[in-house]
Amino acid sequence: MKKIVVIGGGPGGYVAAIRAAQLGAEVHLVENQHIGGTCLNVGCIPTKALLHAAELYHAITHGASQGIKADNVTVDWPAVMARKRAVVTKLVRGVEGLLKANGVTVHRGAGALKGPRTVEIGGDSPVTLEADAVIIATGSEPVRINFPGADLPGVIDSTAALSLQAIPASLAIIGGGVIGVEFAALYRSFGAEVTVIEMLPEILPPVDGEIAALIRGHLAKQGVKFLTGARLSEVKQTDAGLAAVVVAGDKTQEIVAEQVLVAVGRRPRTEGLGLEAAGVAAERGRIKVDANFMTNQSGVYAVGDVNGLIMLAHAASAQGIAAVEHALGHRSAYHVNTIPSCIYTNPEVAGVGLTEEAAKAQGIAYNTGTFQLAGNGKALIESGGTGQIKIISGAKHGEILGVHIFGPRATDLIAEAALALRLEATVDELVTTIHAHPTVSEAMGEAALAVAGAAIHWPPARKS
Ligand code: FAD
Ligand code: NAD
């Protein structure tokens, strides 16, 4: 029986462990904090639990336009936090149960490589495991930037922002990436004055530019302030609270806020892992891997955030599965172009495949089709018709290259687009797939029709 040791129990590691057990291996999983990793404990799940509460609060307090009136609606913050913790605990227990049911041995402690396939688990009485394959899945941690005032109380990272004692009156967010935007939406919905400070000209750099501008405009309408092309120089303590000193061009301004959230990216967590001892190569902190997620050392794999390829939970899990399948001599498949990226604002943002900017940069001849959700009945009911679906397809064959959505249910709708990419579907195949009425998904077919300027529920472009 092959022996697999997995270091790290996040979505990369625990999924790899379960898959390896399914394939008949003896599996050991080493975790030094909480099973479920960043995602379940301080990432995907708690943020979405809080965003769901924020959405509910917003719906109740803004229901008058739909004839729903409620007076004296209040937020019981400790109860919101307790619900978030309850969801996290339930999921973590669930994963622990799955590991047990699959016969995975869980070791509590920090794992370190003592040789390529030798793992030592620290603690009072260290344990050494020899394996046929080792899967490194130790995840990532927030990037810390140096600026005067970085250590002031109230300057926080995303983990702390998930456990605030109270809703802050004001919040300055350094970094307009996914974390910055989700926390901006979250705390703005609960009434905080929010300012996002982004050094690039536009927020959400990897998102299709048109969609990023739409979500920025939407959040701005809800009262979030954006300073783009802006750099933080320091944070000072003032009588009014913290003051983030921000330089944009030749202008310097101070954003006074109760809390300053720094969300400028995450970096692989490899400290103390013994990479050098094991001869595992890394570049700028990221463990280097090949197409099977194997490192330069045979039988040693690195999956998820720690290889720095793409920092998403579902990508980590897919890589974990691919790595153990390869390690155990099975065929595996990992289709990078089908990985969706989702942002859980209200309405949501989701994209898969090439952005228009990427298609241009790669010199690909493409067409686009865009359908405004104002022309979709279900979107009109759910979000007043805000949003759009944009499809990018090859100019010659009409193959789907990318789909980008801003609108209600975007994070679920994107699954159809991911499957379309996986099956190398064309716009014609999307058009001839019949979508139920009334659903937001109808707009996917309409966006495909729009590639040829033939959307049904939108007026044709005026002929000049
Ligand atoms: P992790 O989840 O970080 O797990 C690594 C595990 O390894 C941890 O449990 C850690 O304790 C353990 N570990 C580390 N070193 C050792 C060691 N030496 N020995 C033993 N154990 C060790 N992604 C999404 O797809 N969707 C989202 O909505 C989303 N929201 C997010 C929100 C926030 C606020 C953050 C911070 C991240 C979010 N992400 C989201 C990203 C997602 O959390 C990560 O991509 C994902 O958790 C990566 O999984 P992983 O298994 O590679 O690493
Ligand atoms: P990010 O890389 O998405 O965004 C960081 C942003 O900070 C960028 O826009 C960057 O230009 C900006 N920035 C960097 N340095 C700056 C500075 N000094 N001043 C101002 N702006 C600066 O990183 P993140 O938002 O911290 O998220 C980390 C990872 O977590 C991402 O890879 C993301 O995929 C993942 N995540 C995913 C989700 C989701 O899937 N819904 C949610 C949260 C986090």
TrEMBL record:
Alphabetized UniProt keyword annotations: Cytoplasm, Disulfide bond, FAD, Flavoprotein, NAD, Oxidoreductase, Redox-active center
Domain FAD/NAD(P)-binding: 2-320
PROSITE patterns named in the record: PYRIDINE_REDOX_1 (PS00076)
Major localization class: cytoplasm
Reactions catalysed, as given in the entry: N(6)-[(R)-dihydrolipoyl]-L-lysyl-[protein] + NAD(+) = N(6)-[(R)-lipoyl]-L-lysyl-[protein] + NADH + H(+)
Residue ranges of every copy of the Pyridine nucleotide-disulphide oxidoreductase dimerisation domain listed in the record: 339-448
Cofactor(s) needed by this chain: FAD
Cofactor annotation comment: Binds 1 FAD per subunit.
Similarity comment: family membership: Belongs to the class-I pyridine nucleotide-disulfide oxidoreductase family.
Protein name per Swiss-Prot or TrEMBL: Dihydrolipoyl dehydrogenase
